[in-house]
Amino acid sequence: MAHLISKSRRLLEKRILFSAILDGRSKVSSVFQSRMIPAAGFCGGKLEAGDTILVGPRGGRFKSIKSGEQVQFFPSSSSSDEDDHHDDDITEGLDFPGGRVTFTPQKSFISESSAKRVPCYRVLDDDGYIIRGSEIEQVSKEVAVKMYTGMVTIQTMDNIFYEAQRQGRISFYLTSSGEEAIGIASAAALMPDDVVLPQYREPGVLLWRGFTLQEFANQCFGNKQDYGKGRQMPIHYGSKKHNYMTISSPIATQLPQAAGAAYSLKMDKKEACVVAYTGDGGTSEGDFHAALNFAAVMEVPVVFICRNNGWAISTPTTEQFRSDGIVVRGQAYGIRSIRVDGNDALAVYGAISTARKMAISEKKPILVEALTYRVGHHSTSDDSTKYRTVNEIEHWKTARSPIARYRKWVQRNGWWSDEAESQLRGDIRKQVLQAIQLADRTEKPPLEQLFTDVYEDFPSNLREQEKSLRETIRRHPQDYPPDVPV
Asked: Which of 43, 173, 450, 475 is the 20 to 30 A CA-CA neighbour of 407?
């Protein structure tokens, strides 16, 4: 192999010789002036007419090779020529645009999954006691009690609204049973200016921000007081006032939107962040990966919260992915991540509070995986006992209830009592029933509102559709709800 004094020259020579072989050339004028070398292979070849070149082993004597002579340019692996083995080459690297990469002579494959699973941040044990050595975010009595009443409110509302659907009073419903701590505690850690893009098990966030039970009921019944004017499915809440984007049924579509919204906050230099929620099933969608990559590359203040409740409708996590849950995916995209006990309200509050501060101060995304369990059916269209046991459900409902655990801690601090518990549940039940009764009696939106709020100037095709619909209703009045003004 041609010998050059400096390492950079040796590397340059190697590249020139390899390039020439790939080009299939058989002539060489000068290593410094041409890429042409013998095409006879790696063991050498015959030079043809042209200038001579200098070759020789490292530390050896140079010699001229003239036309017609043969020379071994690339010694075989068995060659004792020390020029074939450079120990210092091992430490060489490549200054790649994404960062310097160090070379290694070993074939090192990254493990498919670490044997040691990522630990789960927890503050309260199952009996509501603070775990020794826990890093705790301080919570005032006012906030602590509000968090508890919020979880009980969501639980009560879910139970009654679910029964209302079973009675045929609303068309669809979906609960947050067993996951109440994630919505309420994460909301408590946010500020009003933070923008929320939810999935569909985050009514607790909206409740915390001031959405009333009556507003929840109006949306589920689709009456004229509903902000969506009855044009959305039940539980697809939204509130511009509370920076809570309207829920959409397609899974994970809100995640890339969240990255974009966070980019706008960054451009406006606002001291706020975007918080986007999804479930474990949502992370199996391509939008999840697109969102994380976009957020990381653009360095935007967004907190992605994944409720890993073990089930994507009827598909368990074991059939969704082989990685250590969701938390490890953040690292692949260059995002700091944390796993938290989603049934521990204090842990969720602390994790989201810190994640929010990091996202805003550093203008970078954060991924939070909250481990929990979906106690209820996926929705009123599902019977989860077809794919999981009743015993499994009951275990999580009783032994690992986030509400029961948090209540023990609040009550142990002297901020709650059995009397307050009885009073709270009675009052909330009464308020929810009243909200349902009023929402049920409230008139539905008029038919023409089905076609409004999209175009400023009403297009002809929509006029034709409205006319056709009215004619259909006149021909088949028995098939149209009598309480909707035509």
From this structure: 173
